[in-house]
Amino acid sequence: MEKISQPKKLYRSRDSIIGGVLSGFADYIFADKTLVRLVFALVSILSAGFPGLLVYIIAWIVIPVKPQES
Asked: What is the pTM of this model?
């Protein structure tokens, strides 16, 4: 019998520093949270005009918070 799995969803993490966006993304891709935050910060700083901040704010608004586990 074949098991039907639900598609994986991206959520903001409750284990967050600011909004939980990067922590939730790290959980989604099974990566270290600190590494994801560091890469995001470096890319944001090294890019002209800091577009990373705008992307982060939009993601903070759009991505839902992870539901509480019962």
From this structure: 0.79
